[in-house]
Amino acid sequence: MTKIFSYKNRILAAGTFIILSTTLSCKKLIEIPPNPPTSITRQAAFADSATAMSAVAGVYSFTPSTNGNGIPYHNGLFDVTTALAGNEVAYMGTYGDDAQYYSHTLTPQNDRLNELWSVPYAGIYQVNDILANITGNNKLSASFVKQITGEMEFVRAFIYFYQVNLFGGVPLVTSTDYTTNTRLPRATATEIYDQIFKDLDGAAKKLPATYPSAGHVRPNLYTVIALRAKVNLYRGNWQAAYNEADSVITRGGFSLLTDLNSVFLEESAEAIWQVPVLDAYQGSGDAMIFVSQGGIPNYLVTDSLLNKFDDKDLRKAAWLGFNVVDNDTLYYPFKYKDVVPTTPATNFMLLRYAEMYLIRAEAAAQLGGLAEAVDDINIIRRRAGLTPVYPATQTAVLDAIRQERRLEMCFEFGNRFFDLNRTSTDNKYPSSGQAPAVLPGWKPDFAIFPVPQTQRTLNSRLTQNPGYN
């Protein structure tokens, strides 16, 4: 069977994608295009399931848009800024705006911020546009509408989950009404989470347990449950997080790979959700940013992270690259190795099976199930070539989970930065491993980034986060 979203089908996916979204500017939250889509364009784009699927493919392709930005999160910007903020890498280059993330001197004028804020809304706009045009569309079958509605609800929940963790409350956009959307105030973080749960609950009722096409590009039921497990973990809903992670582990059909170099490749058995890197000339944004071709890496793995790796840890060998400079071994992130397109292809990992064990372990430990939590920790450690550990107290178990999350999920989607921030007031976690102790210059207000000044200039209803005025 031909893969719906293979590289060979980029042109099909791009057709409607260009119609729908390339006229969107990322200069502001939702900007009215110079030539807004007409009703004729909309009717043509959603005239049947084939043309509608082209629009859906555009959501998943995450190809670079015409202004050079990647539809989230293909271009690596999210990973590099949060890796800097989480003290996973130190910036050794000369671009001052990158250095601000590492030193926690971030200002609302930072050039990177506007892209982090606005580019995801281009993805949300695509989702909302598809939902608006398939709802009540009598040219599409009820089963097709149900499937695509579930997929789009999931994607929107995913994007908002990362926006609320990066910025706190953000504008809640659920329509394509330009006039309204350009003047929206920030919703509260609670309101954003309410929408996330609403979308995930809706998606769970609509999506089947099997993937609807080859690969793991389009979400299924267990993709939804995996994200819901993570959201509940972040919200401290321990029993729900445990149940959902357990469901993915026991019934999702995924498996841990013994070859760590294959984890991020296309159709990895560990991938719960991954999207193709669609560029004919270069690989993933993470590889283009992190991988060093010699000399001192621009993004140098910090000693605080490097020293946590045991020399026998297979993750160190597989996921850290290095250069030798003046007899010093200097490490850089190397999970994504594709500075040029690879065969088999490298896909961008959005949700990964290994994290489900760590979510289940943390939830179990919080609920008092220490032995079960330790079992899950050791599943991850054994895969990494390490001997088991047997911490005996809740504090020690949570510390061990924090350690494994740090090593297993390094440089991925802000996990380290968010883990430190979400536990900074929980006294069950060792204070020596909390944000104030391990992030130089960190203050409680720095748990989230500032609202870009560019956005506040465009929309006076946007308030600033505390500590950044």
From TrEMBL:
This protein's record includes keyword Membrane: yes
Keywords: Cell outer membrane, Membrane, Signal
One GO term describing the cellular component: cell outer membrane
Subcellular location: Cell outer membrane
InterPro entries with a match to the protein in the record: SusD-like_N, SusD_RagB_dom, TPR-like_helical_dom_sf
Record-annotated SusD-like N-terminal domain positions: 97-233
This protein's record includes keyword Disulfide bond: no
RagB/SusD domain residues: 327-468
UniProt record similarity statement: Belongs to the SusD family.
Protein name: RagB/SusD family nutrient uptake outer membrane protein
Organism per entry: Pararcticibacter amylolyticus
